[in-house]
Specification:
heterodimer; A: mainly alpha; 77% helix; B: Rossmann fold; four-stranded antiparallel sheet; 10 strands
Chain lengths: 212, 209
């Protein structure tokens, strides 16, 4: 296998895997809190989150580009055209998806569990701890779905990464470039690897019992 | 005493419960009615788990949906019809409620002996039959000895032997506590302190002894 293919594969896994981990850190607690909250404001927030699932990746890319560009408010961080910028962008992209899926797991599966915990007087922390323990496989499944979405997106990777060879080139940007050049061999190789990763993830998700 | 005053619960445009006035003192109280009549909703409302659309619920004179800190709700335990089992051992499931309530000593020996669970204590409770799961779910509530025990269809999955032992336990327990049971079954009709018939979210009849 071409060394470039291996390099792109590793970088793609690093960027999107990092994005999934990063997004999970805040999205899982938010999803659980929304699902155990009875407040009207939580329902409104959930509606906004659900609405944001379909937000175009180029829009997030554009917003972050403006923030991270040299003249932007966060330009001093020098993150634009780095894998970190791509990771942050993808993490933001998949946040609404993971929050919504965690909400679905917890409120659907654990509604009665929450009632049981409440009847024994469990506080919010005990409820969260028990839910995470009981539904950890399915919650983990939400992060995998997030990764799947991140690894397959193009807009953010292109706008924030710039598709720089050896630095920010990932599956989607490389495939797009190779097709533009008319060099389909590498594009097909990368496409097959992306497909295999996707299939493996679907198998993992099935194995841990997550079906949407 | 648990008192529900003018309690209604609306789901969408449909009233699940409509202007219910009911009291439960010490003893064994049965709630009867067809599926969807509002029994479970009433049980959850008086347990503090579901805020009514209208009306008030008092436990020992305290409005449970009022401004209080909710400590009064520690006196009430609601047990679902579908057993809620944690991915833990039978022992851990049974003592779970006691640990959450911060009980210093959770003594389950009597219950274990009574229900002959000695050999199952270390087994993962998720691997049990539905009947055993229901038993574990009930024992979890018995361990914390609540003043008010609210059970939703507790006998639905139990075999005859377990059912009889649970009945015996509940009859004794009701001598010093309040037990409210939503049920279709006639097992406790003869000895119940009150039987309330609910249909279409309204109390149709109440028999007191």
């Amino acid at each position: 296998m071409d060394i470039a293919v291996i390099e792109i594969t590793i970088r793609s896994l690093f960027v999107s895997g990092g994005a999934a981990i990063l997004a999970s850190i805040w999205s899982i607690p938010i999803g659980i809190i929304l699902s155990i909250s009875d407040k009207q404001s939580s329902k409104i927030l959930l509606s906004i989150v659900n609405m944001m699932i379909g937000i175009p990746t180029v829009l997030i890319g554009l917003l972050l580009y403006m923030l991270l560009s040299r003249s932007g408010p966060l330009g001093f961080l020098n993150l634009l055209y780095t894998p970190i910028a791509m990771m942050i962008g993808q993490a933001i992209l998949i946040t609404p998806l993971i929050v919504s899926l965690v909400y679905e797991v917890v409120s659907g599966e654990a509604k009665e569990l929450i009632e049981m915990l409440k009847t024994y007087g469990a506080d919010k922390m005990q409820i969260i701890e028990t839910i995470v323990n009981e539904a950890r496989e399915r919650i983990m499944g939400t992060s995998i779905i997030g990764f799947q979405r991140a690894v397959g997106e193009l807009g953010i990777a292109l706008m924030l990464g710039g598709n720089i060879k050896g630095l920010t080139r990932v599956f989607t940007t490389a495939i797009a470039l190779e097709v533009q050049k008319g060099e389909f061999e590498l594009a097909i190789q990368l496409g097959i690897i992306l497909l295999i990763i996707d299939l493996l993830l679907i198998i993992i998700i099935r194995l841990i019992g997550w079906t949407r | 005493m648990i008192e529900a005053k003018n309690v209604s619960f609306k789901y969408g445009k449909h009233y699940v419960l409509h202007e219910i006035d009911i009291e439960f003192d010490m003893g064994l109280h049965l709630l009867k009615g067809p599926n969807g009549s509002g029994k479970t909703t009433l049980c959850k409302i008086i347990s503090g788990l579901l805020k009514p659309t209208n009306g008030k619920v008092y436990i020992d004179g305290v409005n449970i949906y009022g401004e209080g800190d909710g400590e009064i709700l520690n006196k009430v335990i609601y047990v679902h019809d579908k057993p809620i089992i944690l991915n833990k051992s039978v022992y851990e499931n049974i003592v779970f409620g006691g640990i959450i309530q911060g009980l210093k000593k959770v003594n389950i020996e009597d219950l274990i002996n009574r229900f002959k669970l000695e050999n199952l204590l270390n087994k993962n409770a998720r691997e049990l039959s539905t009947g055993y799961k229901q038993l574990v779910s009930l024992l979890r509530a018995f361990v914390v000895e609540p003043h008010y025990l609210i059970l939703d269809e507790p006998f639905s999955n139990l075999d005859d032997e377990f059912r009889d032992r649970i009945l015996e336990y509940l009859i004794n327990y009701s001598k010093k506590h309040s037990i409210i049971i939503a049920t279709h079954t006639p097992y406790l009709d003869e000895i119940a302190t009150t039987i309330t018939y609910i249909n279409n979210g309204k109390i149709k009849k109440r028999i007191s002894r």
